[in-house]
TrEMBL record, chains A, B:
Protein name: Transcriptional regulator, GntR family
PANTHER family named among the record's database cross-references: HTH-TYPE TRANSCRIPTIONAL REGULATOR LGOR-RELATED (PTHR43537:SF51), TRANSCRIPTIONAL REGULATOR, GNTR FAMILY (PTHR43537)
Keyword Transcription regulation: yes
Taxonomic placement: Bacteria, Pseudomonadati, Pseudomonadota, Alphaproteobacteria, Hyphomicrobiales
Molecular function terms from GO: DNA binding; DNA-binding transcription factor activity
Pfam families: FCD, GntR
Amino acid sequence: MARTDARYREAFNALLDYCAELSPRAPMPSESKLCEIVGVSRTVVRRCLARMEEKDLIAWEGRDKRLLRAPTAEDRIAQQGGLQRSTNLEQRFLEWILKFDVPANTPLSVAELSRSFKVPQHELKEFLAGLSRFGLVARRKQGGWMLLGFTRDFAVELSDFRAVLELHAVRQAVDAPVDHPIWSRLEILRADHLALMNRIETDFHAFSTLDETFHGAINSVVKNRFVAEFQKVVSLIFHYHYLWDKTDEKARNEAAIAEHLAIIDALEARDEEAATIAARRHLKTSKTTLLSSLRYHDLA
Amino acid sequence: MARTDARYREAFNALLDYCAELSPRAPMPSESKLCEIVGVSRTVVRRCLARMEEKDLIAWEGRDKRLLRAPTAEDRIAQQGGLQRSTNLEQRFLEWILKFDVPANTPLSVAELSRSFKVPQHELKEFLAGLSRFGLVARRKQGGWMLLGFTRDFAVELSDFRAVLELHAVRQAVDAPVDHPIWSRLEILRADHLALMNRIETDFHAFSTLDETFHGAINSVVKNRFVAEFQKVVSLIFHYHYLWDKTDEKARNEAAIAEHLAIIDALEARDEEAATIAARRHLKTSKTTLLSSLRYHDLA
DNA sequence: TCAATGGTTTTTTATTATTCTAGACAAAAA
DNA sequence: TTTTTGTCTAGAATAATAAAAAACCATTGA
């Protein structure tokens, strides 16, 4: 019960690795130095040292710590099964919602999600609390959480908000200095777009990734933590929706490539007016696509 | 330990209130009806009914539940001390940071905050997880949380982001139909501003609230959950910073009133160009004020 | 026959208790 | 002095647990 000692186990093995570098009988660094080396508190380091002494790996008396023998594979401590990655939970969660088309107003069971995502319950709760800031989920009066989900309103507001941020980014990009990395990125993107256009008949589904890269590049001009945070979610949602709505995919992507190229042209010409118009047109198309994919699913 | 029965206690009293309306010997509604009435699960309702039967308030046999006597004040169940409001935790937390000028990179102790705000630990964790979406706090590698706080970068990015949102709102407002509530709100605000201008010598500190109302009105034109969510935090931060930086407060507020009036004038003239310029000027002033208040505190 | 209701059980949530970890302090050594 | 260690206290992560929700099934009564 209670807190796991995964940290101690990891630290112990890390210390063994460090000792392997050391020559036998060499004095070991001070406890606080070892803390820095394995990135853990002195409490844990001392626990590790105690075990090493017990296993006759080191002689430890006061400040004198000496390696007695080279550590072997058997000395290593087993990692408790779990070690489940709670990284990219966000991505996995959104992927789940969009791929399985979880409908709006679905109650979310923390217990169930915790099992399927192999993540401790409390971590999921914190994650959901974070998502509630984006209005994607909300607490229920009876307790627990509920997916507000991709309703029509949500999609409209998301698209509008995205448009506000991205038009701002476009305006900033026009004013970017010549040595700004955006210009070389745009050149590469232009080439990629033209290349894809040539093999569009077969590779039209490769557009989704390109789209994400393109919008990422545009938004990278704006150095703002709030924008960046939103962008992460926005792009993920648009990305999966694109993957998912297969109607007229080739035609849509072909049109989108043309729209992207128009934006690149206008940006490189430093023509704010034209760039804004081109961006607005493309964002409008995106919004329409997102909405129609929702409509399609409402019928299903 | 474990979950409290506050819900049961509240439900029981609510049921008593409901019974008080009933005439004695009257049959009570079905369990599921009672659930809807008090907004609680059947499990809790049945626990309440069991207690009512035990206290000889009702006769209960199968579907036949009859009130035996009118409930008295003594029948009520005591609410367990706590009932601590975890509402407006956000406001209280930001208030604490800004009022006590908690510096950036301060480690936040969940245990301590939990005590001082009288809120269960896990609720605080969820709250902090939410705030981390705004980049105001972050997890530490060693565990726990840390206030990233109001650094210069944070203030700049916050101001910029606010400007993006608010300029968008201004552009929307210009296009708002004549019967949109914004116009009457602006008329009232104009009068309020003029009134405050007349008594500025004595009441200049009343501007802070007026400022919040003004920006709230402008932003109310944009109906967007993302904007609204951010606006809550943004306005709170600006609000407290205004309250807090006392240098040249009268002169600053007087100037700000003039800037507000210029925005109102331009909006009512439906002049997008002028409105944008006026708004941009005001936002720039705000940003400068916010930054200088930080500089002032850095020295302290 | 069937919808609504009640008894019962299973599952999930909220919260505490517990173990591990971090950090602080003072004594000891260099 | 300055650094290092022994000791202690407070805090964080997590499992255990009581309460609540929800599902299930039998029963009632139209």
